[in-house]
Amino acid sequence: MERVDVLVAAGPGDTQDAVLAAAAAQELTARAVTNLEELAAGWRDAGAVFIADDLAERVVGRALPHRPDVFLVGADERALTAWSAPLGARVIGLPAGAAWLGVVLGGDSAPGLAPVVAVVGGAGGVGASTLAGTLACLAATGNGRAALVDADLVGGGIDLLLGAEQTGGWRWPRLTGAQGHVGDLRPYLPVVDGVSLVSMARGPAIDLARDPMAAILGSLRRGHDLVVVDPGRSLTAAARESLRLATRILVVVQGGIRAVAAAREVVRAHQLESAELVLRRASPGITAAMVADAVGLPVVAELPDDRRLPAAAERGLPPLRAGRRYQRACRGLLARVMGGGDG
Ligand SMILES: Nc1ncnc2c1ncn2[C@@H]1O[C@H](COP(=O)(O)OP(=O)(O)O)[C@@H](O)[C@H]1O
Ligand SMILES: [Mg+2]
Q: How many angstroms is it from 162 CA to the middle of ligand 1?
C-alpha cells in the first residue's frame, strides 16, 4: 500500500470530510479507509493516523502496535475519552476542534515535531552548506538538540565542513533502507558540537531514495528541537523529498545581477514559492528590496561576508569559528526559524 501522510479511518461523513479537508489544505497526501484490514496495512507507514470515534473500539480490539501521531477524532465525547489512552491517541473533538486538525497537520506547529529547515543555494558556492551547519551548531548550543542532514550527493560530505569525518557513527549508506517509522537515531549518529549528523560517506556513490529521506527526517523531528537539511544543488529524489517535508526553506542568494537570476531560476524550477531569501554580500547598489522584488520572495536575513569562514571550512572547524557579525545574523535567523513567526 502506498505510503500517505494522513491515514483516516472513518466512514463517509463529517469526520472523514474534516480530516481530508485539513490534509488537502496542507497539501498532504491522504487516504480514507473504512475497514480494519486497510487501516492495519497503512498503519506503520502513514505520517499520521486519524481514527473516527465510532471505529475506535474496534481499532483497540485489533491491538495494532504502538505508534506516534495517532489522533482520535469525532463528536462523541464519551468514546473519545474512553479510547484515547488504549490507542495512545491525542483527542480532537469535532466540531469545536476542527481548527486543531490544521494545527496538528501544519508541519511548523505539529506538536512534538521539530521544524525542518532546508537551506538551498541560489547558485553554487554561495554559502548554503555553511549556513546550514551554522544554524545547526547555534541551535545545539545550550541544551538544544539539533540535527544536520546532508542530502547533497556531490557536496563532499557535510561532516567534512564540521571536521567530523573521523567521528564514528552511521552515515547515509547505513540508512538507505530506512522506511516508515524509524526509532530514535541519536545513539547511532556521529555527533559534533552537540549536532547529530546524517552525512554522506566518502566511497562508492549511493542511491538515496525518497522514502528513506522521509523516514529519517521523521525520526529526527521526533528526537530534536531543530532539523536542518542541506539538499545540495543537484536535486535528487531524496533532496526533493527533503524540500517537500521542510517546514521552512531558505534560499541563499548573492546580490549580483547574475546571482539573482540564478536564484530566481532555482526557485522556479523547484517550485519554492513559499521559500524565504537570505542575502549574502550584496553588491554595492543592490538592496535587499531589489533582490526580493526580482526573485519574488522576501529577504529575511542578510549575511555579511566573513573572511574567517573559508579557512575554517578548509580546516574542518565548526562554523562557530566565524566572526561575530556572521554569527549574530545567523542567530537572528535561528530565532525566527525556531519561533515559527515571520518577524
Ligand atoms: N558568509 C561568508 N563569507 C565568506 N565566505 C563564506 C561565507 N559563507 C560561506 N563561505 C565560504 O564559501 C565557500 C562555499 O561555501 P559553502 O557553504 O560550501 O557553499 P554552498 O554550499 O552554497 O556551495 C566555502 O569556502 C565557505 O567557507
Ligand atoms: Mg553545499
A: 13
What is the tally of structural domains in the chain? 2
Contacts 24+ apart (CB under 8 A), 317-325: 317/163, 318/133, 318/137, 318/162, 318/163, 318/192, 318/193, 319/130, 319/133, 319/134, 319/137, 319/161, 319/162, 320/134, 320/137, 320/138, 320/141, 320/193, 322/134
Q: How far is the CA of 317 from the centre of ligand 2 (A)?
A: 16
Residue 43 belongs to domain with CATH number: 3.40.50.10140
Are 69 and 171 in a shared domain?
no
Could you tell me if 214 and 83 are in contact, meaning their C-beta atoms sit under 8 angstroms apart?
A: no
Q: Which domain holds residue 29?
A: 6-106
Q: Could you tell me if 208 and 62 lie in one domain?
A: no
Least distant ligand from the CA of 252: 1
Task: Name every residue whose Cβ is closer than 8 Å to that of residue 179 and which is 6 or more positions away in sequence.
Answer: 45, 211, 212, 215
Q: Give yes or no: residues 152 and 94 share one domain.
A: no
> pLDDT of 218-270, one tens digit each?
889 988 989 999 999 888 899 999 998 999 999 999 988 899 999 999 999 99
Instruction: State if pTM tops 0.90.
Output: no
Residues 207, 288, single domain; the answer is yes
The string of pLDDT tens digits covering residues 166-188 is: 999 999 999 998 887 788 899 99
Of 77, 106, 135, the position where a domain reaches its end is: 106
Which mutation among 309, 320, 325 tests ligand 1's pocket best, with the greatest number of atoms within 8 A of CB? 309
How many whole angstroms from 251 Cα to the centroid of ligand 2?
12
Most ligand 1 atoms within 8 A of CB, residue of 119, 126, 130, 149 to mutate: 130
How many angstroms does the Cα of residue 157 sit away from the middle of ligand 1?
14
Same domain, 132 and 207: yes
